[in-house]
Amino acid sequence: MIVSDVMTTRLITVVPDDTLSHAANLLRQYQFHHLPVVRTAPPFGSVYTGQGKHPVLEGLLTSQDIDMAAAVGTSSSDILRQPWGERRVLEVMHRATMRVTPTTSVAAAAQILVERGLNCLPVVEYERPEQAPAGEQDDMLSQPLLVGLLTRSDLLMALARALGAFEPGMQLSIPLPLGDLTPLAKTLALAAELHIQVRSVLAAPLEGKVPLSATVRLGTIYPAPLLVRLQEEHIDYAYGEAQ
Amino acid sequence: MRMGRRSKMSNTSGKAPARARLIFHPDELHYNFGAEHPLQPARIAALMDLLEQCDLWHPKDDALALPLRSATIEELNLVHSAKYIAAVQELSKGEPLGKEQQQRRSQLALTYGFADGDTPVLPGMHDVTASIAGGSLVGLSAVMGLPEGGAFATGDERPLHVFHPAGGLHHAWADRASGFCVYNDIAIAIAHALRASESKILYIDFDAHHGDGVQRAFYDEPRVMTVSLHETGRYLFPGTGDVLELGNGTGRGYSINVPLEPFTEDDSYIEAIESLLTPLVISFAPDVIVTQHGCDTHAWDPLTHLSLTMRGIEAQIKLAHSLAHTYCQGRWLALGGGGYDLYRVVPRAWSMVWAEMSEQELPAALPDAWVERWRPAWQAIEQQEQAEQEVMGKSATASVFPLLFRDRPEDFPAQPRRWSISNVNRHTVALARHLLVPPSVRQAFPAARHHSPLAGLFDLLHMQGTATPSRSKTIETPKGALLLRDFCPPSLIERLTADTGLHAFARLPERELQLLMGIARRPDCALTIAHTPEGVIVGEVTLAPGDEWWEGLENVYEVAIEVSSNWRGLGVARQLLSFALELDALEDIILFALGLSWHWDVDGLGISVFQYREMIARLFATQGFAEYPTTEPNVSLEPANILLARIGKRVDSRVASQFLNRLLSSPNLSRL
Q: Does B262 touch chain A (CB under 8 A)?
């Protein structure tokens, strides 16, 4: 699974020249904690739908940054006479944020989020400006275009979806003695034969060992015909708690 | 006195005939997915035969039947997307000729949920399911007095109850067929009633599978409360239906789910429905009740693990009937639903629905002729049914054809883990009550307490031995004098009326009064009220032992306060609270109050929830309450919610620290 499969593409953004009070209002209105800062505002309001040309990413503003600015603003420091709400996004945003690309694997993105203690990663594509003079170094000129945002919530939703939780279905466990996948393969073949849709299959090894059981979610209200076939084929299964 | 057969008895008994009708049309028997499919229309045929043979219903009797009509495309479109309806119509046509058409049909079937074995493409399915949807729509309109329900000569002929056994297809989604259901007749009927009238509708789903389609259709609709009691979705289809699916946006708090453990038996089930449904009906105050009586909850059913007998199913039907009469002026639509023990369970269960609804006595035994006709049908599938029960992991039950309407207990051996199953169910219900039932309603309808904490709250709170049973005090307000009374006896409440602005918990002032009666009758609750010299109650403070969440803690009491919206801003709340807490034992107990933003009348006051929160905190602070952070599930659901507590000075430090620990622990949620 790669980042573009799970990222959010409908984005609420601010531009560097917006005030912090505007940003705070957006965060409150939409109830989240991160605002990507882009060079030019989208045509209507501050919502990018993911269609059309992608904006250039300038930085990231978090609710924490605003809290911090507000806290500093209330102290009687000489340099900051200006009320916090009138300060510009440009002054407090992070420019050097970690970024990922749409093709980054979800596992790598998850690792970055956890190891760096982040909640959100902008997803960018690099594009060289058309008028780029030849011979200049590429990485000086490539601009990050914002194509999406990957948050912890996106990963959690991806996990739930991968487990088949958003589709109606029932759950069956298949023991895999010594990690032998044959019972799982036979079960899936039988499900296909009986026209039962498979919502998800989970057979992950635990700590470097072989998987000892598989969890299969099946899109059926009537599993009995499949269970009868499993018994005939001597495939063990668990459906619900044993009595 | 119960009614005998309607036509014979109506003149002699002196009681008006039950205004009940049954919707059935032979075309509904065409909802048939083939011989191998578990849902067989023969179950409806067996039911109708049983009703006729028991002399409970006759197709020719116009006073007992209600004709159905098909739902129009426009009505189906209230719930289903136009693309889905078009696809169903396309798939309903006979077998196509060309290969291209074949491919297109397979694609449609895949997109709209017909590709698997559950809900296969059925020729003519649009017509038959549209007429089932129409039946439920007509039924609901009839009990609600809407024009679509048909014309009746006099108001008395309009039915109060309607039963539509072929309805109840609760799994269908807006754009997908699922779990044997094509069009969601329940959601269509409810959506029609919503647009045709200003009303609130309570839907109770007794099917063993979660009523996901209906819940989805009204997940953010506060005018429809969906309640589903089902086997937990941990393993069973459709997998949803967790307690924490509460509704979304303005619909928060209007989706109620009670996932029961596999192998739940009658006693635990009855305890669950009794402790949950009445408080929910009171707090929602619906205009009509729609029930889905899927009887796949029965121990003999081959598709689920619930282990009820007819006793549990009968309790469920009687409760629905009494709730409709007590709280909805009798308006009740009952529907069929799941039920896959076609001959042994479905006909008996749904005859019970009709007999209860039409107030006719069921005979004890099934008619011999009926048994002779349908037993062979069961015998033909007996082997298969046993095999299916076995692969589902159900313990073997008696393989007998019932001869009585009610089950014989000896045919149903006790489940080995009965105690732990009941215990988990009790926790689930406690959590649902805790999350969804307002405090004073909960106090008036307590769940059965297993170790009753005290004899009487009055004695406990008056350790000095006061002579007068109840104190009173007069206060002056800008709107006139008010009398405050504490420890109100029921006899006092009976003589008073509730102010029109008193509806925070039970929605209607007269219900609020009944609620106060309930609290006054309970020896372990204390009720303090403020009333005018004319006898109109304008505010109340209730004091009751902490609910299931606080189980095991001593001396912990929940305080709830309400002041009529007509008497706000006059300082009534402060004086009433102060008066109610003038207790000898005040320093010996722990008091707490929950402020839950969904009960707050923020619109009436024109303030934000956070301002309201401040107001409550200030009010309780005058009595020495302080705010405590907590993981209590209700409070932590919404940032505006608040828990205020007052720990008395003489409270044992061990008890106080137990209380503080409980605030931050989550014993009941740890299971989820």
A: yes
Chain A residue closest in CA terms to B231? A240
Q: Are residues A67 and A174 in the same domain?
A: no
The parent domain of residue A218 ranges over 164-232
Nearest to B501 by CA among B570, B553, B450: B570
**Structure tokens that stand for B552 in this block:** 């095991």
CB atoms A240 and B416 under 8 Å: no
Percent of residues, chain B, with pLDDT higher than 90: 52
What CATH code is carried by the domain that includes residue A218? 3.30.70.260
For chain B, domains (ranges, CATH) are 63-430 (3.40.800.20), 450-663 (3.40.630.30)
Dist. CA B167–CA B339, nearest whole Å: 12
Interface contact flag, A220 B305, Cβ < 8 Å:
no
What does the alpha-carbon distance between residue B529 and residue B541 come to, in Å, rounded to a whole number?
6
Q: Could you read off the pLDDT of B520-536 as tens digits, one per residue? A: 888 778 889 999 999 89
- Shared domain for A124 and A33, answered yes or no, is yes
Mean pLDDT of chain A: 84
Residue that finishes a domain, picked among A161, A184, A206 = A161
Residue numbers of A between 155 and 214 with CB closer than 8 Å to B = 164-165, 167-172, 194-197
List, for residues B305-354, the tens digit of each pLDDT value.
999 999 999 999 999 999 999 999 999 999 999 999 999 999 999 999 99
Residue B105 DSSP symbol: H
Token pair listed for B617: 């905190």
- Cis peptide before A175, with omega less than 30 degrees from 0? no
Q: Same domain for A170 and A147?
A: no
Hey, is the C-beta of B292 within 8 angstroms of any chain A C-beta? Answer: no
User: A115, A145, A161 — which closes off a domain?
Assistant: A161
Q: How many residues does chain A have?
A: 243
A95 and A210 part of one domain: no
Q: What is the CATH number of the domain that holds A23?
A: 3.10.580.10
The CA distance from A100 to A95, in Å, is 14
A37's tokens: 């800062």
A–B: how many Cβ contacts below 8 A?
A: 88
The answer, for B523 touching chain A at a CB cutoff of 8 Å, is no
The verdict on whether B434 is a catalytic residue reads: no
For residues B397 and B298, the answer to whether their CB atoms sit within 8 Å is no
pLDDT of amino acid B666 = 56
Helix orientation angle between B125-144 and B82-92, rounded to the nearest 10 degrees = 130
Catalytically annotated residue among B80, B164, B170, B171:
B171
Question: For A87-137, how does the pLDDT look when each residue is reduced to its tens digit (9 = 90+)?
Answer: 888 888 888 788 999 999 999 999 999 999 889 999 998 876 555 555 555
Instruction: Determine, for residues B391 and A217 on separate chains, whether the beta-carbon distance falls below 8 Å.
Output: no
* B418, containing H or E segment: helix B418-436
